[in-house]
Amino acid sequence: MMAPPHSKESRQMTLLLDIITTAAILFIIATGLLTIFGVLKIINFAHGAWLTVGAYCAVAVGDLGWNPWAALPVAFVTGAALGGLTERFIVRPLYARPLDAILATWGLGIIIGQLITLGFGRDVQFTKALLPGTADVFGTSYSVYRLFALAAAIAIGLGFSWLMEGTRLGLSARAVIMNEALARALGLDTRRIRWVTFMIGCGLAALAGTLLTPLTSVDPNMGVAWLVGSFMLVMVAGQSFAALALACLLLGGAQVIVSTYVSPILGGITVAVLAAVVLRISPKGFSRV
Amino acid sequence: MSDLAPADTALLSLDGVTSGYGPISVLQGVSLAVRPGEIFALMGKNGMGKTTLLKTILGAIRARGGRIEYQGRPILGAEPRALVEAGIAYAPQDQPLFQDLSIRDNLRLALPGDRQLGAALDRVYGHFPFLRDRLGQKAGTLSGGEQKMLIIARALMMQPRLLLIDEISEGLQPSVVTRIAQALRQEREQRGTTILLVEQNLRFALDVADRWAVLKLGAIEDAGAVDGGAHDRILRHLQI
């Protein structure tokens, strides 16, 4: 039996689901950034731009009249391909100068934003809902798409666990994360591992952008706001996906609570503020998880 | 200087190699040759350039001059991957294991793929049987001696033609040193593996090596075959 929509139980269940699904969405967005940070040891400040590219893939798929679900593989492949070119021609020559690499990705993000503006205009755009409607969750009516986002986050998390723990590429990537000099001495092709990792990270960012489109409007600068939150979450998580999931749950949960009970404007800066507090107290954040 | 093999019969030869770190020159023109199938001990006190020499051979430190040849071909500037594919394995002294990976994964990383993994594992179990029952254990939880045996096991996984070993006996109890010495001798006898051993442990080095050289202040001070007079000759150099 469904609870009345304004009952205390229904509001509590909605809040709980909002916390969980917000954490899932943050996890989806930050995963690509963490992937690149873990292996390449650089923060890809073009992450927000790749996310925007993914969102515009959804717009383009809609404009072409294709099935809206096709946007997911299109975005991943587009992000991965462009990420591969970026690593090869922009990031790779700068590995010995990580600060310059970070600045280069920041500049690249600005250029991508301008190119998107040239191609699609400045106007806010909307895409077709992938999964409209609501579903009954323990007697509370809740957005089907946000539940799908939760399933997508779990699938991405499990997929990554399999990739890292169950494949040769994952083993090589973990070796590079732990001790790149030793990995190189053992004959691992660290250049290829970095390239593939960067491609996967950018592909995931674009995929996240597509997954966001039913929840938010699309504009050439949409990635910037998400970049700040993702960056702070990755700083708190270190190089651990389990720590990232925990950071998304705790900080994302706080964001939802502040937005609901205090102010949505304050909620928008909650992740960044709390991440700064966590790092002030514990410089390693949640990375021991 | 005496008894350094001519380069044309050597598996690995260095001719006038110089290298260092930034403004500091460490190797001051090192020349030596390691013959196929021999165990060559490079001795010297701390800070004399032994590890720098190994890292220069492997390309981890760029040589500033001279020539390094492996199987008659120059290898200066070669990618580490190319050296591994050519049959050169390295057992490092600094940060030699992936501490948070399992024993199995540390060993797996020595091979380009998992197809030969079973046979390679069986081979190293012959040298170090304890590995068989502890494959899932994290490398960082092993004792110091077990970690050193794992380092040698990983290097032997790929059946190298040339094995470069950096101070493997340091801090080990004699029983572990004996097991490592046995493993190295067996590899040489069964597969003809050539070994360049960087060491300070005189007893261990003379136990396994055929020839030796002493590196002092970045240059070869003395060299010879392992014979009755080797111990005192080397000791004199190490004490001064």
- Supply the number of structural domains of chain A: 1
Biggest beta-sheet profile of chain A: 2 strands, antiparallel
Low-confidence stretches of chain B: none
Q: Catalogue the unreliable spans of chain A.
A: none
Distance between the termini of chain B: 17 Å
Overall mean pLDDT of chain B stands at 91
- Structural class estimated from helices and strands of chain A: mainly alpha
Q: Strand fraction band of chain B?
A: 25-35%
What is the CATH C level class of chain A, in words?
Answer: Mainly Alpha
CATH architecture of chain A: Orthogonal Bundle
Average pLDDT over all residues of chain A:
92
Short description:
The complex is a heterodimer of chains A (289) and B (240). Chain A is built from eleven helices and two strands, in the order ααααββααααααα.
Name the features.
heterodimer; A: 289 residues; mainly alpha; ABC transporter involved in vitamin B12 uptake, BtuC; two-stranded antiparallel ribbon; 2 strands; globular; B: 240 residues; alpha/beta; Rossmann fold; four-stranded antiparallel β-sheet
Q: What does the model show?
A:
Chain A is mostly helical. Chain A has one domain: ABC transporter involved in vitamin B12 uptake, BtuC (Orthogonal Bundle). Chain A has eleven helices and two strands. Chain A has helices at 8-40, 47-64, 71-91, 98-120, 144-166, 168-178, 180-185, 190-212, 222-237, 241-261, 264-281; strands at residues 134-137, 140-143. In chain A, strand 1 and strand 2 (140-143) form a beta hairpin. The model of chain A has no long low-confidence stretch (mean pLDDT 92). The two termini of chain B are 17 Å apart. Chains A and B meet through helix 6 and helix 7 of A and helix 2 of B.
